[in-house]
Design brief:
The complex is a heterodimer. In chain A, about 30% of the residues lie in helices and about 20% in strands. Chain A has 17 helices and 20 strands. In chain A, strand 4 and strand 5 form a beta hairpin. The chains are: A alpha+beta, B mainly alpha. At the A-B interface, helix 1, helix 4, strand 10, helix 8 and helix 14 of A face helix 2, helix 3, helix 5, helix 7 and helix 8 of B.
């Protein structure tokens, strides 16, 4: 009886309410999973970063669809002559979102918010340092604690960042999501309320979209920020429909249940290309998949052996079979979309006869070695096991007997880093579009000639090191480009690893969507997107 | 009846303890560490790793970790997820209604179609109906769930456009905060026009997919139980008395044949609650199955331990209810004969 009454009331209410609702412009994005939380500084996965990005801004940002750094919350910035002082002139009149989680800002965005956001990650005594687990991976990974000397304000709209040493890539770092600016006032409000952990679950920012609601594994809702400093977005509602399976994501796109989708299943690509309602956008991914050779272990310490192996592997076959066309053969450690890419590098041809000859000349007649492949699919290597089998067969043809080895993923990476392998696969996805983020992180060594943790081949070259160290310290792009090109030549000659491929990123969108750009950094952004009714 | 209940309850205690030990141990036997797994290519310095392990209590001896975990459980604390930093019980309660709603619909679908199918097949033993129905049941039973789900989406949603592809409701047309977590009920409570119907449409395909295997099992079980019962003397007597065929089959035979069927139903409910992983993944259904699988991938120990314990509790409760139901169907059990 009670239910009947309720039902009748509900029906009545629905007729009354339903009549007055005007259709707002909505865009549904079929995303892949649930975010861990909404504070980018504490996340490293694309899924989590995508979920928070609509709400927030950074001091500087990547121009959509590129890795070019442009002003964000900082209207402009100056770098001092010695490269050690960065002065940010903040945009005035920028408002934090009002009405989210009962919070109404009483002031505009200012220098205090900038200092608050960086110090949370930097200073252990910060009131929010330990809230929600307090692990700031990216801040540490990008070496910020070693770089930063101080962050101070000269007035409400000027922030001065002093560095311990000149560092050109820092601007690109500041355009990364970990450098998101959050509201110090909202943080105080929640601290007083006794619910600081809500700060990372119910986000308040300055971004193009205002957070509305999140239901784990189901949906994230945002609405357009009418006061957005970059202009009100063209869509009214932005909905992330969490759809973990790639094939059902595409089925949803086909049925117009979503208009933009996260990575499609490679097997569906052919059909997607032929779908008249869908545009298949693609871009070379900012990544590299490689086969490292441990130069600390003979015979891989001999450059001729490494060069011979480079010629013994049929990478075209790998591109066809493992990447199924969704990738391009790599000849440099950095992808071609990155500035300073050296297109003049001459790649090693597939020439098993020559390879065998070179091995013989180097005194390697029969070699028993290992070949490690990761147990998981990675963006830069869709099927490491198959790749391993193919290379194993290629190497057998030149008299190298490679045993395939693998471990659980965390263990695998740890042992690779420890240099326990002789030959093995790994790769990298770029964070900020700066060549330093590939060359220095993956092939750099410290002052004492000890390889960095992520230098898997354990390869140190004095000239290479000099080039990349100098390039990181100067801000003149032309000069840096020259140095990085030189560094790439050294890598091409020395072959610490065999460059295998850069995978391609595909993003299908409905034809009704305009203004959407594929980000080389893997971000999904909607502030400039429009959708036709 | 009360003593029967007490006895059954007492029997569940050792089950709980065993579960607690097994889940705790099994998870730790899987190679991989929650922190290392998260770090990917990037890696982590040994100092930072030690620091994080300490914060999560992973540097404690295993017996100590177990004691803490058991102590927490006894106080109703299921732990905090390593990934989302929210209490496991909160995550579970957010997701569980979705699983329950789907499992309930799937079971209803399986029972409503399965029992009549089994009865028809048994009463026409060896005939065309019997062979067709049992053939279908065998097909259903051996259907790969993932394939079946995708085929239905392609046919029903993409080609015929009869049902939505996935999700629980049209996210653009309807927006309301969850109250109960059961979409059909929340849609009704929201009062938004057409919301209930839309939620029901979203349930159609996942219900069919999740219900297919139990449907097949119930149909086959009903058939064989019916065949056995139909041989009994009292059925012959009932027939000899000149009772209508439907009365013989529907009342005398079916009621007795239902006992093994109810057992099967009870066991399948446990399976449905825990094993809806594939269905939940294909249909973007925000339930606990998918959550648990993701937790394995991330080595989120607390979420896994807590989640498995909570689901096991449900399964144990369901089995208890099934045991009590026997009593209602069959007085011999109730009276302890």
């Amino acid at each position: 009886m009670k239910f009947k009454t309720l039902f009748a009331a509900a029906l009545l209410a629905s007729t009354v309410l339903g009549a007055g609702v005007a259709q707002a412009k909505s865009l549904v994005y079929c995303s892949e999973g649930s975010p861990e939380n909404f504070t980018p500084a504490m996340n490293t996965t694309g899924t989590s970063l995508d979920a928070a990005r609509p709400v927030y801004n950074k001091l500087v940002q990547f121009e959509p669809g590129t890795t070019k750094v442009e002003p964000g919350l900082a209207e402009s910035y100056d770098v001092s002559a010695d490269g050690k002082t960065l002065t940010f002139h903040l945009r005035k009149g920028v408002k934090f979102h009002s009405g989210v989680n009962g919070f109404t800002p009483t002031r505009d965005f200012n220098a205090d918010d900038v200092i608050w956001s960086f110090e949370r990650q930097w200073k252990p005594q910060h009131p929010y340092a330990k809230v929600s687990g307090g692990a700031y991976d990216y801040f540490n990974d990008m070496g910020m604690p070693d770089l930063l000397d101080s962050i101070t304000k000269t007035d409400d709209s000027t922030v001065v960042m002093k560095l311990k040493k000149p560092n050109a890539p820092i601007l690109a770092n500041l355009a990364m999501d970990f450098a998101t600016i959050q509201s110090a006032e909202y943080a105080d409000y929640l601290m007083k309320k006794g619910t600081p952990e809500q700060f990372d679950q119910i986000p308040v920012g300055t971004g193009a979209f205002i957070f509305v609601a999140y239901q784990k594994d189901a949906v994230i809702r945002f609405k357009a920020n009418p006061d957005y400093w970059g202009g009100k977005p063209k869509i009214d509602d932005l909905v992330y429909a969490i759809t973990p399976d790639a094939t059902s994501r595409y089925a949803k796109l086909k049925a117009n249940e979503c208009q933009v989708m996260f990575a499609p299943n490679p097997a569906d690509l052919a059909e997607i290309k032929n779908n008249p309602d869908v545009n298949l956008l693609s871009q070379a991914g900012l990544n590299i998949g490689y086969m490292a050779m441990n130069v600390q272990k003979p015979p891989f310490d001999k450059v001729e052996v490494r060069q011979a192996i480079a010629m013994a592997v049929d990478r075209d076959a790998i591109l066809k079979e493992v990447y199924q066309g969704a990738g391009q053969k790599a000849k440099n450690p950095i992808p071609p979309t990155m500035w300073s890419y050296d297109d003049s590098t001459v790649d090693y041809p597939y020439d098993p006869a020559k390879a065998a000859e070179m091995l013989k000349a180097a005194g390697v007649t029969s070699l028993d070695t290992d070949l490690w492949y990761m147990p998981v699919q990675r963006p830069y290597n869709p099927n490491a096991k198959r790749m391993g089998e193919m290379i194993q067969a290629d190497l057998a043809k030149v008299g190298i007997n490679a045993k395939l080895v693998t471990y659980e993923w965390g263990e695998y990476r740890k042992r690779m880093q420890a240099g326990e392998y002789q030959m093995g696969f790994l790769g990298w996805t770029g964070d900020n579009g700066d060549p330093d983020n590939f060359l220095a992180v993956l092939l750099g060594c410290d002052k004492d000639g000890k390889p960095n943790a992520n230098n898997i081949p354990k390869w140190c070259d004095a000239k290479f090191q000099e080039d990349i160290t100098k390039a990181a310290e100067i801000s003149d792009i032309a000069e840096r480009t020259k140095l990085y090109k030189d560094a790439q030549k050294i890598v091409a000659d020395q072959v610490p690893w065999l460059n295998i491929a850069h995978s391609t990123v595909f993003e299908p969108i409905r034809k009704s969507v305009s203004g959407y750009k594929v980000s080389p950094l893997g971000a999904h952004e909607f502030q400039d997107v429009d959708v036709a009714e | 009846m009360f003593r029967f209940l007490l006895k059954r309850l007492a029997l569940t205690l050792p089950t709980f303890f065993a579960l607690m030990v097994i889940t705790f141990m099994m998870i730790r036997l899987v190679p991989g560490d929650p922190i290392e797994v998260r770090r990917g290519e990037r890696g982590i310095s040994p100092e930072r790793l030690a620091e994080l392990r300490h914060e999560m209590g992973l540097d404690q001896p295993v017996w100590k970790q177990f004691a803490d975990y058991a102590w927490g459980l006894m106080h109703g604390d299921f732990g905090t997820s390593i990934i989302s930093k929210t209490p496991v019980i909160n995550e579970f309660l957010t997701l569980f209604p979705a699983t329950l709603e789907l499992a309930f619909c799937a079971m209803l679908f399986a029972i409503i179609l399965g029992i009549p199918a089994g009865v028809i097949a048994a009463s026409r033993r060896g005939g065309v109906y019997d062979q067709t129905l049992m053939g279908l049941a065998l097909t259903g039973y051996s259907m790969p769930i993932f394939w079946w789900g995708l085929m239905l989406i392609l046919l029903m949603s993409n080609t015929l456009q009869l049902t939505p592809v996935s999700g629980r409701i049209d996210l653009v047309k309807y927006y309301f905060e969850p109250v109960t977590g059961f979409m059909l009920i929340d849609a009704a409570l929201s009062g938004q026009k057409g919301a209930v119907l839309d939620a029901a449409r979203h349930l159609v395909l996942p219900t069919i997919v999740l219900g297919t295997v139990p449907l097949a099992v119930i149909a086959r079980m009903t058939r064989s139980a019916m065949l056995e019962v139909l041989e009994e003397d009292y059925i012959r007597t009932a027939r000899a008395k000149g009772l209508a065929v439907w009365r013989v089959i529907g009342l005398h035979a079916l009621r007795n044949a239902l006992i093994p069927v109810v057992t099967v139903i009870g066991l399948s409910i446990g399976g449905l609650l825990a094993g809806a992983v594939l269905t939940e993944t294909i249909f973007s259904w925000p339930g606990v199955g998918k959550w648990l699988i993701e937790s394995i991938g991330r080595r989120d120990y607390p979420a896994l331990q807590g989640g498995i314990m909570l689901i096991s509790t449900m399964v144990i409760v369901v089995n208890l209810i099934v045991d009590l139901l026997y009593g209602l169907i069959n007085p011999r059990i109730r009276h302890g004969h």
